[in-house]
TrEMBL record:
It comes from Pseudoclavibacter helvolus. One of its GO terms (molecular function) is homoserine O-acetyltransferase activity. The gene is metXA. The active site is at residues 182, 348, 381. This is Homoserine O-acetyltransferase. HAMAP family: MetX_acyltransf. Pathway: Amino-acid biosynthesis; L-methionine biosynthesis via de novo pathway; O-acetyl-L-homoserine from L-homoserine: step 1/1. GO terms for biological process: homoserine metabolic process; methionine biosynthetic process.
Length: 402
């Protein structure tokens, strides 16, 4: 497991020396994957012109994606896996050339795994607006410059529509299952509403039917943290040298976000008031251990993400409301005809289990009735990523019986 990328320390409680060395170097202006970088396990689909809901025009979009397993003859065994805010197409696999982190959901995909590649063909795209190979603010426009501040506003529905174009390109008319957590869960739910005829099963994890005021407020604070960085330059920083991009603002936004990904007591249980060194933070130049923890993960994030993409994706998350122009949330949920498993995490403070219960009660064919499957975990929101055994068993059961 890539312990540090999920915000948890290795079993020893110490960050490996090579990780510390990596984040001590000057961060790039953008941590986005760029054309000319090692492609790793990515494949690419060019999907033509794209017009977002709220205006603007992308003359040619591309989605990067990865696959596992073999598509059967009638193309009926495909499963679509949709990543969370800071994820990408690298669901399973090692850190290496082209992939700055190891797969974000280890143990879920493979022979005999919950997404059994002896039976299923698994596809995971990097979402539109992302920064790991799909068209986003760091991509080049028709003049050969990074889009930067000119990149249009996207919604969750825009991103799902782009994913449907990828399915068309691959010749997949119906998915055996669409699975996503957090922001990916928003996408999965929209798949069930926008394309009910293309979705046989849904797994929606740790996601609400609509982003509430608290979520929007948290997203706004993170966006402002990025924009207030003096090196943000209105979003046009792509050509700046290493060390001169908006890495401080992006790191701060990441640190703010991480406080929502953990349960209310986890940080205190893990760190309490302990010091990072033998210097007292109350009297000398020392630091509390929790300060160093947040700093490390914020700084590490800037090596693999783009500040404009972060803003684009947070804005899309804030737009999430399945009831918009559909007569309200309940009317929209009633459109979902797929056999649906909704999963929540008991200690999730970002999207509490009550928001998942609402989805389970509103869809036509909830696997667990009007209450979501609730997994008990101390990890908070990130439990859907880290409780591999419990989440995997739930998905395996859904695919076997759904």
């Amino acid at each position: 497991m890539d312990w540090t990328d999920h915000g948890i320390s290795p079993p020893s409680g110490r960050i490996p020396n090579d990780e510390l060395r990596a984040v001590s170097l000057r961060p790039p202006a953008s941590g986005a994957w760029r054309d000319g970088d090692d492609v790793g396990h990515r494949q690419f689909a060019w999907l033509g012109a794209f017009s977002p809901e709220h205006g603007g025009e992308l003359p040619l979009i591309r989605l990067a994606y990865e696959t596992w397993g073999t598509l059967n003859e009638d193309r009926s065994n495909a499963i679509l896996v949709l990543h969370a805010l800071t994820g990408d197409s690298h669901v399973e696999g090692l850190l290496g050339p082209g992939h700055p982190t190891a797969g974000w959901w280890p143990g879920i995909i493979g022979p005999g795994a919950p997404l059994d590649t002896d039976r299923y063909f698994v596809i995971a795209p990097n979402m539109l607006g992302g920064c790991q190979g799909s068209t986003g603010p760091a991509s080049l426009d028709s003049r050969g410059n990074a889009y930067g501040s000119s990149f249009p506003v996207l919604t969750i529905r825009d991103q799902v529509r782009a994913q449907s174009l990828l399915a068309d390109e691959l010749g997949i008319s119906t998915f055996a299952a669409v699975i996503g957590g957090s922001m990916g869960g928003m996408h999965a739910l929209e798949w069930g509403i926008m394309f009910p005829e293309r979705t046989r099963r849904l797994v929606v994890m740790s996601a609400p039917a609509a982003s509430d005021a608290q979520t929007i407020a948290q997203n706004t604070l993170q966006i402002e943290a990025v924009r207030l960085d003096p090196n943000f330059n209105g979003g046009d920083y792509a050509d700046e040298p290493a060390g001169f991009g908006p890495h401080r603002g992006l790191a701060l936004a990441r640190r703010l976000a991480m406080l929502n990904y953990r349960s209310g007591t986890e940080l205190d249980d893990r760190f309490g008031r302990s010091w990072q060194s033998n210097l007292s933070p109350e009297q000398d130049d020392g630091r509390y251990a929790v300060e160093s923890y947040l700093d490390f993960h914020g700084n590490r994030f800037t090596r693999r993400f783009d500040a404009n993409s972060y803003i684009t994706l947070l804005t899309a998350m804030s737009s999430h409301n399945v009831g918009r122009d559909r007569g309200g949330v309940d009317a929209a949920l009633a459109r979902v005809t797929a056999s649906t498993m909704v999963i929540g995490i008991s200690t999730d403070v970002l999207f509490p289990p009550e928001t998942q219960h609402r989805i389970a009660a509103g869809v036509q064919n909830s696997y667990s009735g009007d209450r979501a499957v609730t997994i008990r975990s101390n990890f908070g929101h990130d439990g859907f990523l880290l409780e591999i055994h419990h989440v995997g068993d739930a998905i395996r059961s859904m695919l076997a019986n759904g």
